[in-house]
Amino acid sequence: MLTLWVFGICALIFLVVVVWVGYSVVRFRHRGEEGEPDQRQINKNYEIAWTIIPTLICVLLGWLTVESMFGPRSGEPLRTEDPDIIITGAQWWWDIRYPKLGVVAANELHLPVGRPFVVQLSSNDVIHTFWIPDLGRKQQMIPGHDNFITIQEDMIGTFLGACAQYCGNQHAWMRLLLVAQSPADFDAWVAQQKVVHPAPVALASAAAPGKTAPVPQPIPVNAVLQAHPEDSHAADEVAGMPAGNVARGARIYQQQTCGNCHAIEGVSSARFAPDLSHVASRATLGAGVLENNKKNLIRWIRDPQAVKPGCNMPNFQFTAEQTNDLVAYLETLQ
């Protein structure tokens, strides 16, 4: 509606100017007279009129703009409490929470098509900008100042988003996936995200002494982003080794400092790094830097700084066996 009003007013102004210029060209054209044209001052009433009219036009356009941003037909949420989704930007990943559904995700925004969502946008560190072109405009995420927008996707598919505000040396790899699903598929995803996997203690006790716990096969995921060129170093180090032990991997997660940054439902509740409760169900690792598969997960755990320099995850110097066990555990978190 605002666009139509602005277009109509500007078209009217353009028409008036064109007519006035045309009239002036004809009315005051040179007729061969000698000397200077008449220099008498124009009537002040004209000057007053063409000062007041543009001022009123500016006031009208300003009022229409404000009304479209904050009025009842703005399409934007008037409430700043109880959002449907909370998206928090960090260097360099996205924390995505559905407080009404009790779901936590990272770097993938799932939406059912045809339904609007009120989204709270926050930042943990520096200024980021939320931008998924298919959803429309960009919106800044400012530390200490939450912004609120309404988003809606009407087409099923997977769409790429990113941070549109330079936020550090891995700004280019702060990617975000929008997964637009049918309502039934979205409900199934929510149900899957609410599944609580066994705690490490339960996993450890499930393996009989001296025996290796079975390793569930991960759900295959499709590549949706261009990954880095393959680095076979990490895969070579575990080549020929037996399948990782899930129980040992769970103990490594619990005994090392993993849980100080990463949350796993029922195991740890940290919020400093991406939630890993369902990491195996995601399409990418490192906010889009790698396709999520076993080989790339090994590569990431062995040396995250080689994959995404500057990220906050250090190289823990895990042995090949420890890496294999930890990956076996993480791949059960679907």
Could you characterize the architecture of this molecule?
- Among the domains are: 85-184, Sandwich (Immunoglobulin-like); 200-330, Cupredoxins -  blue copper proteins (Immunoglobulin-like, Sandwich).
- Strand 6 and strand 7 (139-141) form a beta hairpin.
- The model is unreliable at 200-240 (pLDDT under 50).
- It starts with a helix and ends with a helix.
- A 5-stranded mixed β-sheet has the order 3-2-1-5-8, with no helix packed on it.
- The longest helix has 27 residues, at 44-70.
- It has helices at 2-27, 44-70, 183-193, 200-206, 233-238, 246-255, 258-261, 294-302, 304-307, 320-330; strands at 85-90, 93-98, 103-106, 108-112, 117-123, 128-131, 139-141, 147-151, 157-163, 175-181, 284-285, 290-291.
- Helix 4 runs antiparallel to helix 6 (246-255) and helix 8 crosses helix 10 (320-330).
- By secondary structure, it is of the alpha+beta class.
Structural class: alpha+beta
How does the major sheet shape up?
A: 5 strands, mixed
Termini separation comes to 45 Å
Q: Helicity range of the residues?
A: 25-40%
CATH evolutionary superfamily of the domain at 200-330: Cupredoxins -  blue copper proteins
Q: Which regions have little confidence, pLDDT < 50, spanning 5+ residues? A: 200-240
Might you state the CATH topology name of the domain at 200-330? Immunoglobulin-like
Please describe the structure with a list of short key phrases separated by commas or semicolons.
alpha+beta; Immunoglobulin-like; 10 helices; five-stranded mixed beta sheet; 12 strands; 334 residues
